[in-house]
Specification:
Helix content is 47%, strand content 19%. By secondary structure, it is α/β, with parallel strands linked by helices. The chain has one domain: Lumazine/riboflavin synthase (Rossmann fold, 3-Layer(aba) Sandwich). α1 crosses α5 and α2 runs parallel beside α3. The radius of gyration is 15 Å and the shape is globular.
């Protein structure tokens, strides 16, 4: 039996970061974490493109177009949806999550999931580089690993 797994080496890889302008105070920090993780694992930050979208709902369409372009080894979606008093939160999170997963499966291009879905702004801040680490960096590392795994099994 031969085991295959991806590594965390970003050298030579090209990525697009899809970043939501909504809750930008949080998404800027997620983006910093993703860029830092990419560089710390051998990636050249010149091989990163940042694509700004209005909010989480628009991420899947941008991701699909970027994945279909053939320019990128992987994508990372970065956003923050914070629960309010209406069911809007559930619909938005579900649509964005399903859409991003669909892009990855449909195109074969890994999409790192850095979309925070929290109950409070404090929870979002904690996940964007405070107490709970930086989920933007985590999403980048997952995407780098998946790019390398797909290369290893093809």
């Amino acid at each position: 039996m031969a085991d295959k797994e991806g590594n965390l080496i970003a050298t030579g890889l090209t990525f697009a970061l899809i970043v939501s302008r909504f809750n930008r105070f949080v998404t800027d920090k997620l983006m910093e974490g993703a860029v830092d993780a990419f560089a710390r694992h051998g990636g050249n930050t010149g091989d990163l493109d940042v694509i700004w979208v209005p909010g989480a709902f628009e991420m899947p369409l941008a991701a699909r177009r970027l994945a279909q372009s053939g320019r990128y080894d992987g994508l990372v979606a970065l956003g923050a949806v914070i629960r309010g008093a209406t069911p809007h939160f559930e619909y938005l999170c579900s649509a964005a999550s399903s859409g991003l997963a669909g892009v990855s499966v449909e195109t074969g291009v890994p999409v790192g999931f850095g979309l925070l879905t929290t109950d409070t702004m404090e929870q979002a801040i904690e996940r964007a580089g405070s107490k709970a680490g930086n989920k933007g960096g985590d999403a980048m590392l997952s995407a780098v690993e998946m790019v390398n795994l797909l290369k290893a099994i093809s």
